[in-house]
Amino acid sequence: MKKLVAVTALAALFPAIAIAQQNNIGSCGWGSKVFDGQSGLAPQVLGATTNGTFGNQTFGITSGTSGCTQDGAVRSTWKTAMFIDGNKETLARDMSVGSGEALDSLAHLLGVEAADRAAFNRIARDNMQRIFPRDNAETEQVVAALREVLMSDAKLARYTVAL
Predict the structure, then answer these.
(1) Rounded Cα gap, residues 99 and 117, in angstroms
(2) Which of 4, 6, 57, 89 has the most C-beta neighbours closer than 10 Å?
(3) Any alpha helices (H) in the chain, and if so which ranges?
(4) Does the predicted model carry a pTM greater than 0.70?
(5) CA 62/CA 70 separation, integer angstroms
(6) SS3 for 141?
(7) How far apart are CA 31 and CA 21, in angstroms?
(8) Contact in structure between 18 and 52 (CB atoms under 8 Å)
(9) What's the CA gap between 101 and 91, in Å, rounded?
(10) Residue 38 contacts by C-beta under 8 Å, 6 or more apart in sequence?
């Protein structure tokens, strides 16, 4: 009976520990990814519990993975990768001409400011073959190439945090 009470008390502490370790849904870690965009008590508790139970938020913060950084700023790259994956053909077409809805949406996801949009569109057009080296390029290759292209431009390099 004592073991059952101890296990129950310890299990009750996990959500409290997880909530103490996070900011709302944790802002990084697997819990923030799985429950992203959901509101209410249940998603917050489940997100925090996911992060706390598996220790992935702590690992993410120390390693700079799972949407966590060591500078305290939270950045999400998975939405950008999902957008690219679902819009490759349209995005490649828009990049080839340096304008279009898909390219505008990508710029928005990356947080490209209005003052930098023309430069972003131009560098995407000028490096389209590098970003999309073949018709069936893998999303990871596109993301990596886009990151390299943006990093090569001092003005646009700051937008790589969302890649």
Answers:
(1) 10
(2) 57
(3) 2-20, 30-34, 41-54, 56-63, 78-86, 88-97, 101-110, 117-126, 128-131, 139-151
(4) no
(5) 7
(6) helix
(7) 12
(8) yes
(9) 8
(10) none
Asked if residue 51 lies in contact with residue 30, where contact means CB atoms within 8 angstroms, the answer is: yes
Read off the tokens for 150: 């943006």
pLDDT in tens, 115-159: 999 999 999 999 999 999 998 899 999 999 999 999 999 999 999
Q: How far is CA 155 from the centre of its chain?
A: 21
Which distant-in-sequence residues (6+ apart) come within 8 Å of 116 by Cβ?
Answer: 155, 156, 159
End-to-end CA distance of the chain: 52
Amino acid making up residue 149 = V
